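Late entry, evening session. Most of the bench is empty. Finally got around to the prediction I had been postponing all week. Sequence below, unchanged from the version circulated by S.P.
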Amino acid sequence: MKNLLLIVALVITGAMNLNAKTSIHIPTVEEAQTNGWEALWGSYDYGYIMPENYTFVDNDEFKLYLNKAANVATGVQCKNDFSIALQMGSSMERESNEAVYMLEALYNGMKQPYAVLTLEPKVSGKISLCYSRGKNSTTLYVFDTTAKDGLGAYVMANSVLFDDVDGAVMPHTSVVNVIKGHKYYIFGAETGANIDFYGMDFISYSDPEYATTTTENAAGSTMISIPTVEEAQTNGWEALWGSYDYGYIMPENYTFVDNDEFKLYLNKAANVATGVQCKNDFSIALQMGSSMERESNEAVYMLEALYNGMKQPYAVLTLEPKVSGKISLCYSRGKNSTTLYVFDTTAKDGLGAYVMANSVLFDDVDGAVMPHTSVVNVIKGHKYYIFGAETGANIDFYSFGFTSYSDSNYGGTTGIENVVTGNDATVNDGKIYTIDGRYIGKDKENLGKGLYIMNGKKFVVK
């Protein structure tokens, strides 16, 4: 059987619930009235003004606080019926990837009090951000003020599409690593495209629930398959470092997926390694790297620039979405703060802009490195490069999932996120799983009431 590497995404219920997580709480209007906070636009029917220096969380794992007063709106028109949202915006121009330098710069020229959050992790981990709105390509930013010796660098600059679904905007969940001892600003682009921000979760890197991947099951429709060594031998592909025991060389222009939703392909030959020392026991991984310096946020401009000076053939992937949606990337390794990049070559009239520059911590857990899953928006008709920082910090890349923006699972609120599967034989194997991923056989007749997954699709027994 082909070795599929499948992503099971974040388990999210209501306004962002994760296993083993700490979630922020946006106070209700009733709480605001009790606290004597000012009504929004003169009436609590619209919401209220959250006061300056409000602290959402300050525990052993992280501190998250508001720098200045900010609007909290009620009656949010969201597909998942969020009833309240923090309004985010800043003075940053849309699609800008200029350094922030000073917090005050984000407030200059604000039309009304929009939120800029400061995050101070006390342990390393990842944050999950749930939000919607904003018709620009870099609408929500996470900026690491500590990186590059205090110069700072973006670790996320992620888009949210504005299309309505069933009369309401779709929520989006994005995931990014954060590092102990660093300080981060979380803010939106411009005040005219303010963001409805519903919640944030934090999960520490040492927690067993940090990884959200499995090699056995997933719900949904489209996922890449990294060919096995046996398939490579059958295809006559070159052995890695002279022996198939190490892996093989995937050939130039190899296409993982080309369907109605997207095309994902390899630009040049790249290493595929076996025996990966990963906590989730992945047996095979695509090796990623590039000529980009660690923590660099310079524009790529040309694909060839990513290959200059490579020590050996590392993977640079090209993604061409045919519909808008989000991608899920599962990977590990690399002890730098911007180790995996997603670069939109189409943005800014072809100048390009990063939509993800996400870290992977290198600490071992139970003798093996931890996998990480990151989620980012992609836009129909744009072209993206996916690559790692430097070849000396190559990344073990396990899998890639695509969920279209119009799909009911796009918002991430149904339990398990859609993934991509490139192996119909495996998807149609008749195996039945519970919604939490337990294999329970193939007999549908003896199932109790509940929600199950078979052949990559959910079904209900009543």
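Two things to note before I forget:
The chain has three domains: 22-204, 215-404, 428-461.
Confidence is low (pLDDT under 50) at residues 1-19, 213-220, 413-427.
Will write this up properly tomorrow.
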